[in-house]
Amino acid sequence: MSNVLRGVWPAVTLPFTDDLALDTEAFADHCRWLVDRGCAGVVVNGSLGEYEALTTEERRQVVTTAVDTVGADRVIAGVAGKSAPEAHGWGRQAAELGCPAVMLLPPTSHAPTDDEVVAHYAHVATLGLPIIAYNNPWSTRVDLVPPLLARIAAEVPQVVAVKEFSQDVRRVLHLTDLSPDLQVVCGCDDVLVESVAVGARGWIAGFANAFPEQSVRLLQLAESGDVAGALALYREMLPILRWDADPRFVQAIKLGQEEAGRYGGPVRLPRLPLPPEDEAQVRADAKRALAAGRG
User: Fold this and answer.
1) Which of 123, 147, 191, 217 has the most beta carbons within 10 angstroms of its beta carbon?
2) Cβ–Cβ < 8 Å for 155, 118
3) How far is 198 from 72, CA to CA, in rounded Å?
């Protein structure tokens, strides 16, 4: 199995001001804070980074700010696009800046055929950068099921890993059986320990934005085989980690950051703030996780 990504890589949230302007200084500070607390690097312009709500210039700024702040080798750029040429353009920026890999959703313009999915990845692969396929069937209408991922990996050698967000841990072993050289990266917070137990390596994490040190410790415990230690921490964190699988995960993670003493800030439309009762539950779940980290 390849190891294009090891350790905890937060899919970074974006801080907006009260009038919803992108705050690049706060973003740089957040990237620096995450790396200083043990995260291996950051993934930018992913779903959690609200990339679809950004202007073209803002999306470029996000990548350059992260690279300037923590170094290109610690930045994986999300390059999703409605078309292969659009994704290729974002990938070219990442390559020119020296990023070690890109993260790529299947095409989002329509429900593509398998042949079209393979062609999409093949086009972006012409850049020469390693590609982490991103399987998020809940938002793309495309499920990169294990046989399709195995085909992509076989026909497009630049696809060396998959961020698996199907929430089905059975797929980890299925994927490693079909394509042993394809690295499976946990992409959903509340299946981390189970995924690692059956062979996933690395974590593109959501709530690491709020709890980076605890997230690093949890992954280390899981990967070391310390089942009892991992489960003890995992049980206390699971109530908040489950919000990562909720469609409103961006709002929840930003609230988690606030409970951790960090700036979360507002979200851009079409997302709206959580209703008061859900906000209260997120804050309570975050406090429980924080208490476990102090224990």
Assistant:
1) 191
2) yes
3) 31
CA neighbor of 104 nearest in space, from 123, 127, 129, 80? 80
Strands 159-164 and 203-205: unpaired
Residue 295 has a pLDDT of 60
User: Which residue reads 């394509």 in tokens?
Assistant: 179
Nearest CA to 7 out of 44, 46, 32, 34 is that of: 34
By C-alpha distance, which of 32, 27, 34 is closest to 13? 27
What does the block give as tokens for 231? 């489960």
Provide the residue range defining the domain that includes 194.
8-212
3-state secondary structure of 44: strand
22 by DSSP, 3-state: which?
Answer: strand
Number of domains in the chain: 1
Residue 259 lies in a domain: no
Give the tens place of pLDDT for each residue, 33-74. Answer: 999 999 999 999 999 999 999 999 999 999 999 999 999 999
**pLDDT of amino acid 1:** 44
C-alpha distance from residue 283 to each of 206, 238, 254, 274 (Å): 16, 13, 10, 11
In a domain, 2, yes or no: no
| DSSP assignment of 79-102 | ---SSHHHHHHHHHHHHHHT-S-E
At 113, which amino acid appears? T
Which residue, 163, 168, 166, 285, is CA-closest to 236?
285
Q: What are phi and psi of 3, to 5 degrees?
A: -135, 65
Domain-located, residue 131: yes
Q: Tell me, yes or no, whether 149 lies in a domain.
A: yes
| Geometric angle at alpha carbon 265, from 188 and 57, rounded to 5° | 85
